[in-house]
TrEMBL record:
Protein name, as recorded: Thymidine kinase
Chain residues that bind substrate: 170-173, 178
InterPro entries: P-loop_NTPase, Thymidine_kinase, Thymidine_kinase_CS
Lineage, broadest ranks: Bacteria, Pseudomonadati, Pseudomonadota, Alphaproteobacteria, Rhodobacterales
Gene name of the record: tdk
UniProt entry keywords in alphabetical sequence: ATP-binding, Cytoplasm, DNA synthesis, Kinase, Metal-binding, Nucleotide-binding, Transferase, Zinc
TM ranges: none
Species the sequence originates in: Marinibacterium profundimaris
GO cellular component: cytosol
Amino acid sequence: MAKLFFHYSTMNAGKSAVLLQASYNYREMGMRTFLLTAHIDARGGEGRIASRIGIAAEAETFRPEDDLHAMISAAQAGGRLACVFVDEAQFMTPDQVWQLARVVDDLNLPVMCYGLRVDFRGELFPGSATLLALADEMREVRTICHCGRKATMVVRKAGDGTVITEGAQVQIGGNESYVSLCRRHWREAVGDRAEHPGA
């Protein structure tokens, strides 16, 4: 039975590398996979999923207005797919997550989503929140804080290294902009959430 999977983590945990390895395993056995990534994030190049360790693969891109069920159905018309892989899944809309659930339920096709759970403010991305609600299985891709504890949060930094606590939820960047931390060190970096209005 096909399932909807959500593999989540903070920045720089190796999500893309895990995705690319899993897709390679299918392809090595002669099975077709369909790779999707957010159009907004072109750090690895337009229409590419790239890992910091140097591996990459071509992928279709999605925008908020795209119907992922229709895209996957069209791809499947060219031959049976074994699995769908979605990188940067946090950038999906809630409707798009539901479209993937329909792919799983109606096309009997497994879908593996990889993305961030929370943003630099400690808040869920809409796509991630819907995946947490709908996924059949969730798996954490772990990375560590500088103290050695498991990192579960991320801070955004300005060019001068100061921590930013306000701003747009989405800002594309890598190591130059984001640092993964455990909750304790995230709280130290941004100030205790009890001090912030609405917390």
